[in-house]
Amino acid sequence: MFQPDIETVPIPQLRKLQSERLKNQLGLLYDKVPFYRRKMDEAGIRPQDFRGIEDIHKLPFTKKSDLRDHYPYGLMTMPLEDISRIHASSGTTGKPTVVGYSRKDISIFSEVVARSLVAAGGRPGMMLQNAYGYGLFTGGLGLHYGAELLGMTVVPVSGGMTDRQLLLLQDFKPHMIACTPSYAQTLGEEVVRRGIDVSKLNLRYAILGAEPWTEAVRSDVEKNLHVTATNIYGLSEIIGPGVSQEDYEERGSGSYVWEDHFFPEIVDKDSGEPLEEGKHGVLVFTTLTKEAMPLLRYWTNDITWLNYDKSGKRTHIKMGPIIGRSDDMLIIRGVNLFHTQIEDLLQNMEGLAASYQLVVTRDKAMDEVEVLVEVDKEHYRALGEPSLSDPESTPERFLEIRNRFISRIKGEIGLTMQVTLQAPGKIPRSEGGKLSRIKDLRVKK
Ligand code: DLL
After folding, report:
1. Is the pTM of this model over 0.85?
2. Quick one: 20 and 96 in the same domain?
């Protein structure tokens, strides 16, 4: 562990620390940020009377629109000349969401990333190929500073440039790669396609995040790149990557949330009421140690669960994989649908690959989902690379596979979807960053 004392701190002690830190954040926000002072006044909260973390649900939520309304610097606690870095995430509505960091914020950011890298299998002296984008996006610089703090050797290649990534993997021999899971899929496929001998690479770990992914993609990446792949989660508003991280020996059981810095809650997406452990809902974070731009109960829109894992190495709470963002949820004939549910069903589907896209259309009043999914390369080759565009020429074996997938979707999700098989390589790939798996043709321009 990078900071074993705090990563294994007993829960009562952690609560005490969280309470002290939260009270400090409230004081700071009350004094320095008019928006929060007004919110606290409206809610009748006086920082000096606030009891502690157990009262967190009394605090108001902060939404992305609050950040937008105070664009670009309105939620900062300090004058601009004291801010040492600015990051931003591209918004869907034009203006980016801006986040400021003090020197201390950067140092905490580096610490939580260093913790995350260790949990992912990284050790001082190992080499990290950092294929997250450098720039306003927090992935590149976030992983970079954390890896340096840990004592890794960083190769700051940034995202994309697949030829160069593959060259570096072969010649520089990094032990670990950091990128989005969809880009790790791209790299894995290219390794196989170009006949690169994976056993000659030194790669052992992949630290993947910035977009939802499931076990189907994990198996794909682990198989093609011969790595152990773990999930790193985060968002710019809270700090960037390193808000939570899965341990490489506890894969599949959730990611440790670094609770001494970011206090997580799960709330009901409609009522905002806190939900009990294990229930799916909206993830909400309160920063506990941020200086430049602390946020109270930030509504991430991400849907997951929280759970303490008594058998884990660390004491901090775990969060599940993100099944999607509540604003990206499709509602198809009354059924709520996240694309990760389809991805999940692809796991262990013999004959199909983990490359897919959902195309949503509206026919009169009815919404339809077509699942484009690639067939597995080996099956495809074994059947003589047939045309798949015409059911007449599609081999019986593939028709069976397709029908099996249609019934699986119907059985698990309750919706009848059209499944269209595609030849390997036909579906758009990640070229370095986040990949959109949904093509929504209902949206009128
Ligand atoms: O994506 C920070 C990051 C960089 C995380 C590198 C991990 C690795 P934003 O661009 O602000 O920040 O986007 C944040 O991305 O609210 C989630 O919806 C999604 N997201 C991030 N990590 C994961 C993950 C970075 N591991 C938004 N699983 C978040 C699922 C993720 N979704």
Report:
1. yes
2. yes
